[in-house]
Automatic annotation (TrEMBL):
Coiled coil regions in record: none
Pfam families reported for this sequence: Glyoxalase
Name of the protein: Catechol 2,3-dioxygenase
Keyword set, alphabetical order: Dioxygenase, Oxidoreductase
All copies of domain VOC, residue ranges: 11-162
């Protein structure tokens, strides 16, 4: 694994998302996914709540609830559907999806477990370096296996497992820039 020469980072402390219904969020993240609810906060002046769920490895997924939060816009605030089943596009600055690392040996078992709990899951995707980026079958070039599902607010989630170590050859693409975008960008306010 590569090391960070600038900062000693230990992973993601928490990722903060927005919920439309905190009780339903607790029911899903603790009840279905088994993540312990470890901290709850009522924000000052009735402006909302902030709850934290332990997602393993010292990391948390947190949710804000705001009484006046705008409704989500599929395809803008998050993808409109799951990978392989429709559009994966979301807006610049949006959170496209959250991937949770799971053990390789339990990957398929966990997919079955979610299906048994009534969660709609995507097909298994074996990500590789082919032009389609996905292989039907496992082979030595597959670097991660994953499947996707959504929480009650449509937030795209993923269970993923690395299947091999990365090498220097895995960093080989020229980064795109803002000039490469095809959408019409809004002019900056004067």
């Amino acid at each position: 694994m590569a090391t960070n020469p600038e900062f000693e980072l230990g992973g993601i402390n928490h990722l903060a998302l927005v919920s439309s219904d905190m009780q339903r969020t607790i029911d899903f993240y603790s009840g279905v996914l088994g993540m312990p609810l470890i901290k709850t906060i009522d924000l000052p002046g009735g402006s909302g709540q902030h709850f934290f769920f332990d997602c393993g490895g010292g990391d948390c997924v947190a949710f804000f609830w705001f009484p006046d939060a705008p409704d989500p816009v599929p395809g803008v605030s998050a993808p409109a559907s799951m990978p392989g089943e429709g559009e994966l596009l979301s807006a610049v600055g949006s959170m496209n999806h959250v991937a949770f690392h799971v053990p390789v040996a339990k990957f398929e078992q966990y997919r079955d477990r979610l299906r048994d709990k009534g969660v709609e899951v995507s097909p298994i995707l074996n990500h590789d370096n082919s032009p389609s980026t996905v292989a039907r079958e496992m082979h030595d070039g597959v670097f991660v296996r994953s499947f996707y599902f959504q929480d009650p607010d449509g937030i795209l989630l993923e269970f993923a497992c690395w299947t091999r170590e990365f090498t220097d050859a895995d960093v080989s693409h020229t980064p795109k820039t803002a000039a490469d975008r095809t959408v019409q960008r809004h002019a900056a306010p004067a």
